[in-house]
Specification:
Rossmann fold; 6 strands; 3-stranded parallel sheet; single chain; alpha/beta
């Protein structure tokens, strides 16, 4: 695919949001900050991925069927929610990361309103010990080869868009889509 075709594909870039993501005012604000078209689809893992139209006219994914993203962002709204995923909801969370790993997907775990300092110093609502929390998170990052991002709520939409857009751009430049 030449540079002109790559640019054409990038112009069709859109974000797919998992149908299980709640349609809230916060979510709508996040989508607005993405500044690209946003569509809902059933993602088999992750909360966000991308779609685009190739020069052949085909899209990367059919949004009317289950989507197995090649790159996905799993978003958590706080350290509290992430702690629950590593504690009470661990098995469900683990199955999601297993599905992504089996598919060879790149995953970014983005946690809003969070920092390493708050995690390490136990500034969250959970009985999960800070040392156990840190150990679990770092072990999972190694086991499932994901990137972990902490950010403020107001920057999450922009970061989600940028990570997904750059993943598509890199894959196009490497010739992964023909």
């Amino acid at each position: 695919m030449d540079i002109f075709e790559q640019k054409q594909v990038l112009e069709t870039f859109q974000i797919l949001v998992d149908t299980r993501e709640q349609d809230t005012e916060r979510a709508r604000d996040r989508y607005e900050r993405m500044n690209v078209p946003v569509f809902r689809a059933k993602l088999n893992y992750g909360d966000y991925t991308y779609n685009a139209t190739l020069p052949s006219g085909e899209t990367l994914f059919d949004i009317n069927s289950n989507v197995n993203p090649i790159c996905a962002v799993e978003r958590k709204m706080s350290l509290d929610e992430l702690a629950m995923c590593l504690g009470k909801d661990r098995k469900r969370f683990q199955r999601e990361f297993e599905r992504a790993k089996e598919a060879g997907a790149r995953v970014i775990l983005l946690c809003e309103n969070a920092s390493w300092e708050n995690l390490i110093n136990g500034r969250y609502r959970s009985k999960l010990n800070p040392n156990a929390y840190l150990g679990s998170l770092v072990a999972w990052a190694a086991r499932y080869d994901f990137q972990l991002l902490f950010c403020k709520e107001e920057t999450s939409g922009r970061l989600i868009k940028e990570y997904l857009y750059r993943d598509l751009k890199e894959r196009l430049e490497r010739g992964e889509f023909g």
